[in-house]
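BACKBONE GEOMETRY TOKENS
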Amino acid sequence: MLFEVPSLESLNLGAALPAVSLTFGVCVLLLVDLLLVPKDRKEITAWLAVAGVVVSFVVNLFTFNTHTEAFLGMFVADSFTGFMNIIILLTAFLGILLSKDYLKRAGIERGEYYTLMLMSAAGMMFMASANDLVVVFIALELLSIPLYILAAFRVPDVKSEESGMKYFILGAFSSAFFVYGAALVYGAAGTTSLPGIFGAVGTIVQTGGSAAFLLLAGAGLILVGLGFKVAVVPFHMWTPDVYEGAPTPVTAFMSVGAKAGGFAALLRIMAISLPAFTLADGQPYAAWQQTFWIIAALTLILGNLVAIAQSNIKRMLAYSSIAHAGYILMAVAAAGTTGLTNDATRAALIYLLAYMFTNLGAFGVALAVERDDGSGTNLEDFVGLAKNRPGLALMMAIFMLSLTGIPLTGGFIGKWFVFKATLDAGLVALAIIGVLTSVVSAFYYVRVIVNMYLRDGEAETPGESRMVNWAVYVAGAGTLIMGIFPFLVTGLSDLVTVAASVVR
């Protein structure tokens, strides 16, 4: 059998241009940094990386509302892809701003840092647009491997090396679980294509037998693999140590980017290929929904309760990140109810956008307080920040209130839509747990505000710089704009569908 060379028309590179342009830009950036940029002028590489992100962002705006396929149907370009690309590219942009001056003062300024960050971002974009389990796996590795290196980038810091090693070892296990799950799904459906799996589900449900068991087991193992990446219970163990030991800009980037890529893949797989996978005829919800909402509830409870005991801002935000993965997983669980797939997906996207601005901003303020040797990240180091740096303190207060879910912030809008989707899906108990754990979270978020405003002290900001301030204020503006003018985001999210004709 002769190998058939795909035509340019079947590849349809134009549909994949945002991700392809960033990937191509990373390759060019690597060569330019190696051959043309002097060792003492790596800020040039940072600005070139920003240019690459901006170009990809502009290209994405032009292809935002397309509905087509690329790479022989293994890549899908639709409004879901476009919305996720916005979140990922903004994450990369703010991550570069946070990193530029940090690398210099930490003595680890090397051009490959930006190459690794953008390559990971490209992996996230390919995960968001994957239309095949094989592509999901390749994109997962493209996302993960650069992050393993970035987590250990602050060599010879022992904590950074330890965080990179822990992340790598557990990440390798999670990838193996994903591959095994994909193999079982292939055994049940006879294909790794997401639309193909959807088409086979009806027959599997009707006939039952071993195929249904294989499909259910495969979906469970895929959840394990991607659950590690988004840090849901019980796959969260790596998060506190890795977040604390990794360079703070890397922690900020992975806290948002890895979640965005992981949840994009989860939504693609569950909402496109398995929404109709039920264990009984006429059942109004997918077979995997109950598992998802139980994991979401456990994640909310553990993340918020353990965060109370933390005295280090990075570990506190790590457990906070686990808790917020639980809120997003509420929307994924709601997507398993018949007729709610698109609404629940929009809720997850809105929450991810709000979380992106809020969490990156919070880490930006933590970076400003952090000392050159990596110390200065305890909550006590924020005491009196409002006295010395009122602008940064105000931004941090906004971020803490947004993470709590207070009105007029992006966090409130995100939680509003997630809770609404959860209630519409009939998951009342899960919604109650979400509300109660949000109240609990107010304790450790408001504690930061109390330290800044109500305790005497003179907090220093040795890590503050113009770029860090720009990143913090951009994140603060995004948080407030989403909270005060939510229609700007909801209008954009209304275009998002995951049940488009291109995949069904």
Remarks:
- The CA atoms of residues 47 and 96 lie 9 Å apart.
- Residues 11-503 form one domain.
- The longest strand covers residues 68-70.
